[in-house]
Amino acid sequence: MTTLQSKLAEARSQGRAALIGYLPAGFPDVESSVRVVQAMVDGGCDVIEVGLPYSDPTMDGPTIQRAAGMALEAGTTPKDVLAVVRATAATGAAALVMSYWNPIERYGVEAFAADMADAGGSGVITPDLIPEEAGPWIAASDAAGLDRIFLVAPSSTDARLKLTCDASRGFVYAASLMGVTGTRAKVSGTAERLVERTREATRDSGLPVCVGLGISNGAQAAEVAAYADGVIVGAGFCQRVLDAPDLESGLDAVRAFAAELGEGVRAAAR
Amino acid sequence: MNTDAHPVPDYLGEGGHYGRFGGRFSPEALVAALDEVAAAWEEAKSDPAFQAELNTLLAEYTGRPSPLTDARNFSAHCGGARVLLKREDLNHTGSHKINNVLGQALLTKRMGKTRVIAETGAGQHGVATATACALMGLECVIYMGEEDTRRQALNVARMNMLGAEVVPVTIGSRTLKDAVNEAFRDWVANVDTTHYLLGTVAGPHPFPSMVRDLHYVIGAEAREQVLERTGALPDAVAACVGGGSNAIGVFAAFIPDESVRLYGFEAGGDGVGTGRHAASITGGSPGVFQGTRTFVLQDEYGQTVPSHSISAGLDYPAVGPEHAWLADSGRASYAAVTDAAAMEAFRLLCRTEGIIPAIESAHALAGAREIGAELGPDATILVSLSGRGDKDVNTAAAYFGLTGDEGERNR
């Protein structure tokens, strides 16, 4: 069982959703990103998605684009990302990587899977890789014992929900809305329906369904936690680091934000 | 002329794969829309009413078939080889881009969508898209890198006149690739009402094969015209390659003709050795970029490297996946043409034929000079003159020193 799987099982046994936080490695620089991750974990994140910054992030909105752009300007490499994964795993949280596909392919799919496992990572989220194109990744992640998280969307047909859930391990990432990453004033009404439909596809496997995109405060986290196995938050963490006058106050804000979200996932009626 | 044939090449595999290239590297959220476009295009291709409507537009609005011009004077600068120019520059809006745009705009209406988005670099595809949307009553939003909106202010004004909204893209390198990223972001959020009218043979399946189908008319016409004019097939076909839409269009009809050599000329910028170029096949490596697997300009970590070319239309850090396959299989040859060689060919065509070519197309002309020198005076070379150079007058005038004081001296 990967750390991710045990974290999700632990949250479930506590009658709550897991809290999953995203941060690009190297934002605002490699060392500081490790400290931000620690603050996220201290505040209550069960799982950390370590972002691999990429030059062409077509699924990200302005906040994460800016954060990942700063990480690239700071010279962040895939090796740095793996170092942040290692540091994340050392906090006790489950460590995932979230990456567009080309940097992993360039690194070497098998080599990346092996190095990821060696760093103590649990799995990888691949937002621009669909199962039909994932043959080498499915083989490599199986060989390395990594979880493999594909995405489903409100536009996914029932047949594609089944295909995607069957190819996933650890959890399946349900994109709450049709759009890019970023905070939203309201949780999309399509999210709950998507989770319901996805549960049909995971009825036999019991694969957890975690929801991301647009979740920006404790109340929204509670709303989503009422029907999802995990609540994924990214832009809100990045925004707090961007807005802070210095790193220390940024860490305080990140810790407080994680705690607010953590209260949300615990408050949810399930 | 037979313009309604869209033969499927035997190497196009399931899921839009060309050998190890192509495919669909897209967010799941877009898969339903891509499937919808693919299914709609498959239906439209075999619907005589759709084809008739498209062919009427191509004839009466675009002005097809485009002529074939014997470049008798320019020939002397091509080793004496006979050079036949396929005049896509004479199409409405000034380039081959209109072929694809009219087809996809009709398809947009067929799918019941009311809004079109598109990317543009220099503005040619944006102007063509704005034109088709004006004609068909579709809402039109064009994404354009902020740098490009400044360099191509006149084209921004043209698009505005045609009723399109031009959105400057202020993130990333603020050029064509970032405009494509932003169009994908818009599409995923507005896919119920919106079609993304992609301007080249790149992106996720079905775009490379659909855009190829819509430009097939270039090669189909040219093949008949060359046969009629010369009584034989050409020895070589030359085209410029950025994303590669005009090149695929002219190559496709000749791919089964094994005696015909196919040459794609990429933008070599300052020279492939300098790192300042846009030659993805010649100077790039296989990778995944903007929805497809193809040759990409990338660093050792898989980050996209900015491209450079004097020609905005070729200034793109990747290439359509079918070209990647044609290069891999050896059916077509690709080489880089520097800015300097392209501008010399540009100057020569202006002076010898009275035709101002697009700087993009000048790369194909420079390539034809090399092919002609190799094949000699008995050879016939078909060149895709993909666009006209009106849009490039400022760039060319600055390049040749025809502005300001120097311009006075050269008058």
UniProtKB/TrEMBL annotation, chain A:
EC primary class: lyase
Catalysis: reaction(s): (1S,2R)-1-C-(indol-3-yl)glycerol 3-phosphate + L-serine = D-glyceraldehyde 3-phosphate + L-tryptophan + H2O
Record's function text: The alpha subunit is responsible for the aldol cleavage of indoleglycerol phosphate to indole and glyceraldehyde 3-phosphate.
GO molecular function: tryptophan synthase activity
Pathway membership: Amino-acid biosynthesis; L-tryptophan biosynthesis; L-tryptophan from chorismate: step 5/5
Keyword set, alphabetical order: Amino-acid biosynthesis, Aromatic amino acid biosynthesis, Lyase, Tryptophan biosynthesis
Superkingdom, natural source: Bacteria
SUPFAM superfamilies given in the database record: Ribulose-phoshate binding barrel (SSF51366)
Designated name of the protein: Tryptophan synthase alpha chain
Pfam family, one: Trp_syntA
Native species: Actinorugispora endophytica
Keyword Zinc-finger recorded: no
Family label: Belongs to the TrpA family.
Subunit organization: Tetramer of two alpha and two beta chains.
Entry GO terms, CC: cytosol
Active site: 49, 60
Known EC number: 4.2.1.20
Automatic annotation (TrEMBL), chain B:
UniProt pathway annotation: Amino-acid biosynthesis; L-tryptophan biosynthesis; L-tryptophan from chorismate: step 5/5
Keywords of this entry: Amino-acid biosynthesis, Aromatic amino acid biosynthesis, Lyase, Pyridoxal phosphate, Tryptophan biosynthesis
Matching Pfam families: PALP (PF00291)
Catalysed reaction equations from the record: (1S,2R)-1-C-(indol-3-yl)glycerol 3-phosphate + L-serine = D-glyceraldehyde 3-phosphate + L-tryptophan + H2O
PTM sites of type N6-(pyridoxal phosphate)lysine: 97
Cofactor needs: pyridoxal 5'-phosphate
PROSITE patterns given in the database record: TRP_SYNTHASE_BETA
GO molecular function per UniProt: tryptophan synthase activity
Keyword Lyase: yes
Origin: domain of life: Bacteria
SUPFAM superfamilies: Tryptophan synthase beta subunit-like PLP-dependent enzymes
Any single Gene Ontology cellular-component annotation: cytoplasm
EC number: 4.2.1.20
Domain Tryptophan synthase beta chain-like PALP: 62-387
Family: Belongs to the TrpB family.
Biological role stated in the UniProt entry: The beta subunit is responsible for the synthesis of L-tryptophan from indole and L-serine.
Subunit text: Tetramer of two alpha and two beta chains.
Protein name: Tryptophan synthase beta chain
